[in-house]
Amino acid sequence: MQNSIFYITAPSMEVSEKIAKHLVGKKLAACVNIIPKLKSFFYWEGEVQSEEEVLVLGKTKTSLIPELEEGVKEVHPFDVPCIISWEIDAGHKPFMEWIAEETR
Kindly report the CA angle at 40 between 52 and 4, in degrees rounded to 5? Predict the structure, then answer.
């Protein structure tokens, strides 16, 4: 069973907590960490923008990433939310097994 880490940015702590509870509650993520006060710079609508955001970082089965993405879009207010993931190459075996057990 392959596991992945996902990275999502959110506009506020309230939205990030909503995303975390939604994903863990639907067993799309085994664990979600929220890191407050991230400063993001990006190009949007023809100009450089900057916003304070919150980082949502979590662990899941790689096979659940497409469904996780859809779950995030259900509760995320952005038109184009940042949702990215990468596979975990190695990890503490009991923790990796726990991820598999706590997700669908």
Answer: 105
Based on the structure, what is the number of domains in the chain? 1
Structural domain boundaries enclosing 25: 3-102
Tokens for 76, please give them. Answer: 């995320």
Q: Pick the closest to residue 21 from 9, 8, 31, 10 (CA basis).
A: 31
CATH number at residue 89: 3.30.70.120
Question: By C-alpha distance, which of 30, 51, 37 is closest to 100?
Answer: 30
pLDDT in tens, the chain (104 residues): 799 999 999 999 999 999 999 999 999 999 999 999 999 999 999 999 999 999 999 999 999 999 999 999 999 999 999 999 999 999 999 999 999 999 98
> Is residue 60 packed enough to be buried (19+ CB in 10 Å), middle (13-18) or exposed (0-12)?
buried
